[in-house]
Amino acid sequence: MAGPADSAGPATGPAAPAQPTATPTGVTFCGLVDPQARGRGLGSHLLRWALSHHQPVTVETESLTRAAEDLFAAHGLRQVFAEDVMRIDLARGVPDAPWPAGAQLASWSAVSAGRFHRVYAAAFRDRPGFPGWTADRWIADVSEDDDFRPQWSVLAGLPGLGDAGFVTAALDWIVQVGVVPAARGRGLGAALVVEALRRMRADGATHAWLDVNVDNPAVRLYRRLGFEHRGRRARYRPS
User: Fold this and answer.
1) Contact 168, 108 (CB under 8 A)
2) Distance in angstroms (rounded) separating the CA atoms of residues 49 and 55
3) Among candidates 213, 233, 232, which has minimal Cα distance to 127?
4) Is Ribosomal protein among the key words of this record (predicted)?
5) Adjacent-strand bridge partners of 166
6) Could you give the CA distance from residue 126 to residue 106 in angstroms, rounded to a whole number?
């Protein structure tokens, strides 16, 4: 949950909030309930406390359940974001996905990073919530992650279009996949994901994860490639 800082809070015990952590936009804290104490309304008590002591509040969950949905709805919260977490078993092999004719590949490097950013911007500019980051900021966000794997991150160009799609990857994760509008419908996104998975498996990875916004049609592609749903993350705010 996130909201402006407040030092007061209920005492520790079977249900308690973690110590709030200051952020540029307020504080972030987490409500915890001992598994043996669940079903007693303690989660509802914590949520009421958060909503009454911290405004505005954003409630975040890393594993959305029906019970949590009902709890949030009962407290007047509406979902403002949700993404599915998916996993694929690489021990069984990597699916097939042919490249469009004439595709040319480049791995992430200091030289190619700017090209990745240009494709990222073209691919996601029209998506809700697009941050519009500069190349320097986006490249730093991608490459300064300790788990980032440049050798698994691929840029693809197509005849007549130039750079047309990309995938970035980190340890056990497909981080981001994007295809420019003019290149969609040719199987490029699938080929990029499969190429990253192939490189991951060649380096010893046994599985890979990804997350995808629930309103992103790419979820159908990931299911077709063999990714399985493992959970849902979500954010809620007061109605």
Assistant:
1) yes
2) 11
3) 213
4) no
5) 155, 178
6) 25
Structure-token match 């109605």, residue found:
239
Which residue is listed with tokens 């300790």?
146
The string of pLDDT tens digits covering residues 159-172 is: 999 999 999 999 99
Q: Where are the domains of the chain?
A: 2-84, 87-230
Q: Quick one: tokens of 193? A: 């994901």
> If DSSP codes are grouped into helix, strand and coil, which group holds residue 133?
coil
Average pLDDT over residues 37-65: 79
pTM for the full predicted model: 0.79
Fold of 87-230: Aminopeptidase (3.40.630)
For the chain, how many helices (H) and strands (E)? 6, 13
* Cis omega (within 30 of 0) for bond into 56: yes
